[in-house]
Amino acid sequence: MGKINAEWHLKHKMPKNPTMDERIKWHLEHQKHCSCRKISGKLAEEMKKRGIKF
After folding, report:
1. In angstroms, rounded to a whole number, what is the distance separating the alpha carbons of residues 42 and 20?
2. Please, what is the angle between helix 20-33 and helix 41-49, to 10°?
3. In angstroms, rounded to a whole number, what is the distance separating the alpha carbons of residues 49 and 4?
4. Distance of alpha carbon 51 from alpha carbon 38, whole angstroms
5. DSSP of the chain
6. How far apart are CA 29 and CA 2, in angstroms?
7. Distance CA 54, CA 10 (A)
8. CA distance 29 to 16
9. What is the pLDDT of residues 23-51, one digit of tens each?
């Protein structure tokens, strides 16, 4: 785990009940601004299926 960007997290909340597209969009932006964790699990698998590099 890296350092959390608390300011970014406060300003960019994950939507309630997000669609897969919303989750992907949020996590890609998150990765640009915060290094608290990597994209993994089912989300990473779905992004790979869609050809999205992360």
Report:
1. 10
2. 100
3. 28
4. 17
5. -----HHHHHH-PPPSS--HHHHHHHHHHHHHH--S----HHHHHHHHHTT---
6. 16
7. 23
8. 17
9. 999 999 999 999 899 999 999 999 999 99
Residue type, 6: A
Looking at the chain, how many residues does it have?
Answer: 54
Question: Residue 27's CB: how many other CB atoms inside 10 A?
Answer: 21
What's the one-letter identity of residue 19? T
Whether the pLDDT of residue 1 is over 80: the answer is: no
